[in-house]
């Protein structure tokens, strides 16, 4: 290859956050035409802080671009930049679902800039990605715009990053073979067909769908129309009978309108007769009231004479009642006197008994008078007891002084110590609370589950540990960043369980019941917490390592076992700046998978394709959760010291005093028992004296009760004297009764005469009341009949005459109620003969007639629309099918040629089970890699992975010369191929992609076979990445070419 004659292109990557001094390539359309670029080809790709790149610019060629580099160097990052820079979705790439994940780790934003060739002036698309809010900022030709505008601009250039026939990233290679025939046809139409081909296809599917709908609608409407006509024909006779019945019902209605007027006229005439009778009865009632008035005046005169006599009689009655009450009291006193006489006899018996008891007690008291006096003995015992009490008080005072001295000494010696211990314990609790507050702020669900665990810890059989960030205690806060960098955040907030059943019980409660998002892990059955490292720490100290991660923190047994098992904290060393200064030697000689320096983390991997060692490093972030250290051993020691703060120096003296007090208590008890016996002897005489006194006190009241009985007898005699007044009051009452009887007889005669007159008057009043009631009822009836007649005839309120329009109809009807009732019965009987008819039948008949007319019109419209759709389908099919068949034939011709060149067979055809079902059309790929087999359809299951990759690659190459898209991207499709097929496919790719009428092609691969054939139109972009890369300002293309030429000289 003649390097000087090729167009100058540079591609470089900056891995150490350096800035580029190179400006972007020119944006004139002349450069694109001169280089052979087609409309929409990529001229330049610029990446800043994107995935593995700090800053990189790639200048691809117009034909085949081979992007070569080892795994992990950043080849697929260029593919991601093309997709995201051209407004593609992250789902196309099959990697992270958030666009912020494509920004380089540790950076807050990144950008991708793509320059596309356009005849009217190159198009520069810039996308800046923000990590914080996962949003993007777009620019077209350095001017801010929206994502919608960018998508429209990309669509105008026929770029489809979502079409697998144009853009096939590494993670989507396997999905190409999984595409159905229908999906492959649509992708091919969009990729290589004319712009209108896919539109015609969509129109055909739409027209066919609407045609099926219209056919079904027309068929349904025709069937429904025929059924509606048949039903109406059956109901026609019922409708005629219905109208005959309606004529009878109209006559019944008119009779019912006239009947209230006839009833009203009859009631009005009856009302006039009742009014006359009422006036005559009113006159008779007035004459009877005038004749009764003299009798009433005489009755009132007799009643005035009877009133004083009745008052005097009432007074006599009251006095007589008082005397009766006094007589009752006398009877009560007699009964009380009888009771008291009985009580007196009983009292005399008790007096005799009490006198005998007093004599016996006095005799016993005289017998005790000769006994010796025990008072001196009692006084001697009291004196000795007072002496013992004084000694006890003295010992108690000394004991109080000793307690006071002990308390003062304890307070003096332990107050400061206790305060210091309490302050230290409070500070430890505060640090723990800070860690819990951080957990509550960042992970609300985890904190809620923590509170539930603390309240229900007794429900678990094994050990359950709170989130690791709370139980891990870093010994030195400066080392917390290593722990947090090494252990993922999901595990730092995870609960650790010793038993599997406990973890399932916990997850059922918090995740299924409370709907909380929490993480849990289970410790290994065999403890790994004391697992030794792979090599002793002494062998690592010459390289600057001072510890393994496990020795930097404390944790419970199960938590440490899990971390050693899962993250090998027992085998990850931590170094210093010295380690960083000799990092190359460390990686080369120690060959450890992961190491930490003072501020960085290094991960070392060995290449799968060679024995080369690849390392990557990342800066350590400051610690967020483990900076607060709480020493659990120190906390337990503080609690123990607080419980044991006491003084024992004075205990011996206090024990001696307690022994003396016990001896005094025993002597005191003996003296008190002796004193009790002496006191009982002395108290017995006193008790006899008290009993005699008590009996004498009871004897005196018994004698006093005799005086009260005599007073009651005198009271009874006084009440008996007033009984004689009762006879005089009885004589006076008899005299008053005689006077009252004479006046009452006269009053009774007058009342009899008045009662006869009143009976006649009452009968007259009853007759008048009835007539008045009948008159009011008839008046109400007339008003009701008038209102009813007005309502039936739809008259306005206040109108009393029959409306003119009803006069003619009423004149043809009978004028009496009997004749009207007879005609009503006759018409109703005739109407009832028409049974089984209803308004619903007629309404249904008329409604169906209207529906029939509407359906006939709709059926004509739908039939015309169906004819139009069939014409449109025929025209669209003619425009689409012929061009599509030719396109598939061209693809098949190239596809078959490619397979024949590889001594295999392949075929592409247009497949459809039904020519009228346009949504079932598809492209079928059939291949044969061995002569002994038949052609088989390309599926994800029948062919091997390498065979599918070859078929996919050759199909895409078949589209290359037909392609109307400006570029194509294929990422690592040759990974599953054997060397023979890979060489054949590579030759076909070079020959096809470097042709005259082909568009730009990107072929990404991590490796190439030896002695491949290359074309002059190819552009090879080698991606290098690693700590030994030259910065851009030190790179010299001329020096590189000179060194390459020198190596070629033998």
Automatic annotation (TrEMBL):
Residues 42-1010 form the RecF/RecN/SMC N-terminal domain. Signal peptide: none annotated. One of its GO terms (molecular function) is single-stranded DNA binding. Residues 264-291, 657-698, 838-879 form a coiled coil. Keywords: ATP-binding, Chromosome, Coiled coil, Nucleotide-binding, Nucleus, Telomere. The keyword Nucleus applies. Gene3D superfamilies: P-loop containing nucleotide triphosphate hydrolases (3.40.50.300). GO terms for cellular component: chromosome, telomeric region; nucleus; Smc5-Smc6 complex. Its main location: nucleus. It holds the Pfam family SMC_N. Forms a heterodimer with smc6. Component of the SMC5-SMC6 complex which consists at least of smc5, smc6, nsmce2, nsmce1 and nsmce4a. Core component of the SMC5-SMC6 complex, a complex involved in repair of DNA double-strand breaks by homologous recombination. The complex may promote sister chromatid homologous recombination by recruiting the SMC1-SMC3 cohesin complex to double-strand breaks. The complex is required for telomere maintenance via recombination and mediates sumoylation of shelterin complex (telosome) components. Required for sister chromatid cohesion during prometaphase and mitotic progression; the function seems to be independent of SMC6. Belongs to the SMC family. SMC5 subfamily. This is Structural maintenance of chromosomes protein 5. It comes from Cyprinus carpio.
């Amino acid at each position: 290859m003649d390097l000087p004659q090729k167009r100058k292109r540079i591609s470089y990557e900056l891995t150490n956050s350096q800035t580029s001094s190179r400006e972007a390539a020119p944006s004139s359309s002349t450069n694109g035409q001169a280089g052979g670029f087609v409309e929409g080809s990529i001229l330049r790709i610029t990446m800043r802080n994107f995935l593995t790149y700090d800053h990189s610019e790639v200048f691809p060629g117009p034909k085949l671009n081979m992007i070569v580099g080892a795994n992990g160097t950043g080849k697929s990052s260029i593919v991601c930049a093309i997709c995201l820079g051209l407004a593609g979705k992250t789902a196309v790439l099959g990697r992270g679902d958030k666009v912020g994940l494509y920004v380089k780790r540790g950076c807050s934003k990144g950008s991708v800039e793509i320059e596309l060739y356009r005849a009217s002036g190159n198009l520069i698309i810039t996308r800046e990605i923000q990590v914080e809010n996962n949003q993007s900022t777009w620019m077209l030709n350095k001017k801010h715009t929206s994502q919608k505008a960018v998508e429209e601009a990309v669509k105008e250039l026929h770029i489809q990053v979502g079409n697998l026939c144009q853009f096939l990233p590494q993670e989507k290679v396997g999905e190409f073979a999984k595409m159905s025939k229908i999906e492959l046809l649509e992708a091919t139409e969009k990729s290589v067909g004319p712009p209108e081909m896919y539109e015609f296809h969509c129109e055909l599917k739409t027209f066919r769908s609407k045609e099926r709908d219209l056919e079904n609608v027309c068929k349904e409407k025709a069937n429904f129309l025929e059924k509606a006509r048949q039903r109406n024909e059956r109901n026609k006779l019922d409708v005629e009978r219905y109208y005959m019945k309606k004529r009878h019902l109209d006559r019944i209605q008119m009779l019912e309108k006239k009947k209230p007027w006839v009833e009203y006229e009859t009631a009005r005439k009856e009302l006039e007769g009742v009014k006359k009778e009422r006036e005559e009865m009113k006159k008779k009632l007035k004459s009877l009231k005038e004749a009764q008035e003299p009798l009433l005046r005489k009755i009132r005169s007799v009643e005035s004479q009877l009133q004083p006599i009745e008052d005097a009689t009432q007074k006599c009655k009251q006095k007589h009642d008082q005397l009766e009450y006094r007589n009752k009291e006398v009877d009560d006193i007699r009964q009380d006197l009888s009771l008291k006489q009985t009580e007196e006899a009983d009292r005399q018996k008790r007096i005799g008994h009490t006198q005998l008891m007093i004599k016996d007690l006095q005799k016993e008291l005289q017998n005790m008078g000769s006994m010796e006096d025990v008072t001196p003995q009692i006084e001697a015992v009291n004196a000795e007891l007072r002496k013992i009490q004084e000694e006890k008080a003295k010992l108690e005072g000394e004991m109080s002084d000793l307690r006071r001295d002990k308390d003062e000494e304890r307070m003096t010696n332990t107050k400061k110590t206790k305060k210091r211990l309490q302050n230290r314990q409070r500070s430890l609790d505060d640090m723990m609370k800070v860690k819990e507050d951080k957990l509550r702020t960042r992970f609300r669900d985890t904190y809620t589950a923590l509170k539930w665990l603390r309240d229900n810890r007794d429900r678990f059989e094994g050990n359950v540990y709170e989130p690791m960030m709370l139980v891990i205690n870093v010994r030195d806060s400066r080392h917390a960043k290593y722990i947090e960098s090494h252990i993922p955040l999901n595990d730092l907030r995870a609960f650790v369980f010793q038993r599997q059943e406990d973890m399932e019980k916990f997850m059922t409660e918090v995740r299924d019941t409370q709907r909380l998002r929490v993480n849990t892990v289970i410790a290994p059955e065999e403890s790994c917490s004391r697992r030794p490292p792979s090599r002793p720490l002494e062998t690592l100290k010459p390289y600057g390592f001072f510890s393994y991660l496990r020795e930097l923190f404390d944790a419970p047994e199960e938590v440490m076992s899990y971390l050693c098992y899962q993250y090998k904290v027992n085998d990850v060393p931590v170094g210093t700046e010295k380690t960083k200064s000799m990092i190359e030697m460390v990686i080369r000689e120690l060959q450890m998978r992961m190491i930490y320096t003072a501020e960085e983390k290094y991960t070392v991997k060995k290449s799968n394709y060679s024995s080369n060692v690849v390392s990557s490093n990342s800066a350590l972030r400051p610690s967020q959760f483990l900076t607060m250290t709480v020493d659990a051993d120190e906390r337990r020691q503080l609690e123990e010291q607080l419980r044991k703060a006491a003084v024992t120096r004075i205990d011996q003296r206090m024990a001696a005093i307690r022994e003396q007090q016990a001896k005094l208590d025993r002597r005191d008890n003996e003296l008190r028992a002796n004193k009790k016996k002496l006191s009982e002897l002395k108290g017995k005489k006193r008790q006899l004296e008290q009993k005699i006194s008590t009996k004498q006190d009871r004897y005196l009241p018994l004698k006093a009760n005799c005086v009260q009985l005599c007073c009651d007898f005198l009271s009874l005699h006084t009440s008996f004297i007033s009984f004689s007044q009762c006879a005089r009051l009885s004589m006076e009452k008899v005299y008053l009764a005689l006077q009252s009887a004479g006046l009452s007889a006269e009053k009774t005669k007058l009342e009899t005469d008045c009662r006869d007159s009143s009976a006649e008057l009452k009968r007259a009043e009853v007759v008048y009341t009835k007539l008045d009631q009948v008159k009011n009822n008839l008046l109400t009836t007339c008003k009701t009949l008038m209102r009813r007649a007005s309502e039936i005839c739809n008259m306005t309120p206040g109108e009393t005459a029959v409306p003119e329009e009803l006069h003619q109809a009423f004149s043809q009807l009978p004028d009496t109620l009997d004749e009207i009732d007879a005609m009503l019965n006759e018409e109703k009987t005739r109407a009832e003969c028409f049974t089984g008819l209803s308004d619903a039948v007629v309404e249904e008949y008329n409604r169906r007639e209207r529906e029939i007319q509407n359906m006939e019109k709709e059926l004509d419209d739908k039939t015309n629309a169906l004819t139009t759709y069939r014409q449109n389908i025929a025209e669209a099919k003619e425009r689409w099918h012929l061009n599509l068949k030719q396109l598939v034939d061209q693809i098949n011709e190239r596809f078959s040629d490619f397979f024949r060149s590889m001594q295999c067979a392949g075929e592409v055809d247009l497949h459809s089970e039904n020519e009228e079902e346009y949504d079932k059309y598809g492209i079928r790929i059939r291949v044969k890699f061995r002569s002994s087999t038949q052609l088989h359809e390309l599926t994800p299951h029948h062919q091997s992975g390498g065979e599918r990759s070859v078929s996919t690659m050759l199909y895409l190459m078949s589209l290359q010369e037909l392609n109307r898209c400006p570029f194509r991207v294929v990422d690592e499709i040759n990974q599953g191929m054997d060397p023979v097929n890979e060489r054949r496919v590579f030759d076909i790719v070079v020959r096809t992609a470097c042709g005259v009428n082909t568009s730009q092609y990107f072929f990404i691969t991590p490796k190439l076979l030896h002695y491949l054939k290359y074309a002059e139109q190819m552009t090879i972009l080698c991606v290098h990445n690693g700590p030994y890369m030259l910065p851009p300002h030190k790179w010299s293309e001329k020096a590189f070419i000179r060194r390459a030429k020198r190596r070629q000289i033998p």
